[in-house]
Design a protein that fits this description.
The chain is of the alpha+beta class. Helix content is about 20%, strand content about 25%. A nine-stranded mixed beta sheet has the order 2-1-3-4-9-5-6-7-8. Helix 1 crosses helix 4. It is globular, with a radius of gyration of 18 Å. The two termini are about 25 Å apart.
């Protein structure tokens, strides 16, 4: 059951996973900075205040997380389909080396494994390296990518070039010939790549510490 407390626990769990305070999470999602403050969760007369479904949708979009990960973080379901499953895990540096992906970009060879609270299939995890996506993703965070979901403008994505470079970015713009890939950290410029340079691009569906 998704109770008032579990809903707020789920929001707090997302904030912790991304190294953010509730206020910083609200701002990242384009909401008022006070939207998730503890003082806003219960009114002065003791009535419970619930976050709107629109607010939850915005933080899921802003963080690249799925509703399943939100529910798992809420503690609402301790048993059942979200008890956890083992998925392949690889560091970004390793992902740039040959032997870990087939010609279609699917995992092959010897990968580490990680247990995640999800029942989604056709996914794997990449461990973040560097600070180009701070404060969204930190060094050591695991981004969970889908091998089947369609990539759209504004999505957080993992990209591998034909030269072997692997990066985590935001798909800022896509045409028939080029991709523009932005970093969250303003210290890193936007990358523009020809489509012919891309080996594969995957949508990040959520992240885990």
């Amino acid at each position: 059951m998704l109770s008032h407390q579990s809903i707020w626990d789920g929001i707090d769990a997302i904030a912790r996973r991304h190294g953010l305070s509730p206020s910083a999470l609200a701002k990242l999602a384009g909401l008022d900075a006070t939207a998730f403050n503890p003082s806003k969760r219960v009114s002065k007369d003791g009535r419970e205040r619930w976050p709107s479904t629109e607010s939850i949708a915005k933080i899921l979009e802003a963080t690249g997380e799925s509703f399943d990960s939100f529910v798992a973080g809420s503690g609402a379901y301790m048993q059942g389909d979200l008890a956890g499953r083992s998925v392949p895990l690889l560091g970004l540096a390793q992902a740039g080396v040959g032997g870990f992906f087939d010609s279609a970009g699917f995992p092959i060879g010897e990968w580490d494994r990680i247990t995640l609270p999800t029942d989604e299939e056709n996914i794997y995890a990449l461990e973040v390296h560097g600070d180009s996506m701070l404060p969204l993703y930190r060094e050591g965070d695991k981004v969970i990518v889908s091998m089947t979901e369609q990539v759209r403008r504004g999505d957080r994505v993992a990209v591998r070039t034909r030269s072997g470079e692997v990066m985590v970015k935001v798909l800022q713009r896509q045409t028939l010939n080029r991709l523009e890939l932005a970093s969250v950290n303003p210290d890193y410029p936007t990358r523009t790549l020809d489509v012919a340079e891309i080996d594969w691009i995957r949508r990040i569906i959520w992240a885990s510490q």
